[in-house]
Design goal:
It is globular, with a radius of gyration of 20 Å. By secondary structure, it is mainly alpha-helical. It has one domain. Helix 6 runs antiparallel to helix 8 and helix 8 crosses helix 14.
């Protein structure tokens, strides 16, 4: 990607969602999305433009790949949840200037709880069959988070954001990193936890999150076509990373405490911390001031070995893939809480 394109994207937000955010008040994301859908029918305009974009399906979408990725994410949901909540999410804080700005303005707990619950909702929403079909659970979750981001941009701009920063909050580059947290960075975290998919399955998961990026409002230049392009994008965006400071350390520690205290992962707090060190890499964990517990480290290494064995069975032993799927679902049910109930009954319909 050229420097000119990077500058353009760093100075761009989400025009469709931002136009809607200027006309509605902040409330629960599901309620805001219901309001947008109602206004699209009564006032049309920018509301209908956003709905039209959310319901548009690009020609490149391959539903077979998306279904394959959804099934994989469901089977290995325990490791995927740990990799995202204790690794990707915290890695993302080192990139997200908007989160750091909220911490420095005294909104630490609010920001942590919001991010953790939005992330947890999206994790669970993308494990359901047909989740990205228009109006389904994952499709709606992405739309709600997209609108929530637009409301946050609107709020931060009114707090003298441009007096301290040259580019807008939650720019296209920030949004691209959000998607990478669930795809490329989550893949790295799962590998560190002992689960490594073959090339075809990695491509399916990449395709799944490429379509998620479209629904999330990403510019086409940020919707990578291949795994190699995705890796290059991650390297490019990582170069923008700021030096880890106390704000990042506070975000990391409070996020892990929130995950433990709210019971989003049914593991002891010290074990969640040990998993985070494994998913992040020791160097990043040390930068963030996350302590090491040798006893729980042995437990995480045992978990990694078990995952390696499960992956071997999944790919190498004929007829074992179904048994392995059932075993992994059992582990998921005993580590990860059930999908949180939706605040609304039917999905919105066009």
């Amino acid at each position: 990607m050229t420097d000119t394109a990077m500058r353009r994207l760093s100075a761009t937000g989400d025009a469709l969602a931002d136009a809607v955010a200027m006309r509605i008040d902040r409330r629960r994301p599901s309620r805001m999305m219901d309001e947008v859908h109602y206004l699209a029918k009564t006032e049309i305009g920018v509301y209908q433009e956003l709905i039209d974009h959310l319901w548009s399906i690009p020609d490149w979408v391959d539903w077979q790949l998306i279904d394959r990725a959804q099934k994989l994410q469901n089977v290995f949901n325990h490791a995927r949840t740990l990799a995202i909540l204790t690794g990707s999410l915290i890695e993302g804080y080192c990139q997200n200037r908007a989160s750091v700005a909220l911490v420095t303005s005294g909104h630490l707990n609010q920001e942590v709880v919001r991010r953790v619950y939005e992330t947890n909702q999206l994790i669970h929403s993308t494990t359901q069959a047909g989740c990205l079909q228009p109006g389904a659970s994952g499709h709606r979750a992405l739309a709600e988070i997209r609108l929530s981001n637009a409301l946050m941009r609107k709020s931060l701009v009114t707090r003298d954001w441009y007096g301290r920063h040259k580019s807008p909050p939650l720019s296209q580059l920030d949004m691209a990193y959000d998607i990478l947290e669930f795809s490329h960075i989550a893949k790295i975290g799962m590998q560190r936890l002992g689960i490594e998919f073959d090339a075809h399955d990695q491509q399916a998961i990449h395709h799944f999150w490429r379509y998620c990026g479209h629904l999330y409002g990403l510019d086409e230049d940020l919707l990578t076509n291949t795994l190699e392009q995705e890796s290059q994008l991650h390297q490019t965006l990582s170069q923008r990373q700021e030096t880890v400071d106390k704000a990042h350390q506070l975000l990391a520690k409070n996020t892990l405490q929130c995950i433990a205290s709210h019971g989003l992962v049914k593991l002891p707090a010290d074990l969640i911390l040990a998993c985070s060190r494994l998913c992040l890499s020791p160097a990043r964990a040390d930068e963030l001031g996350l302590p090491q517990n040798r006893g729980w480290r042995r437990t995480t290494h045992f978990y990694r070995t078990a995952n390696r064995s499960a992956t071997f069975l999944h790919y190498r032993i004929p007829g074992m893939s179904l048994v392995n799927s059932r075993l992994n679902r059992y582990v998921s049910q005993n580590i990860v809480l059930p999908r949180p109930p939706l605040e609304h009954k039917p999905p919105f319909k066009k």
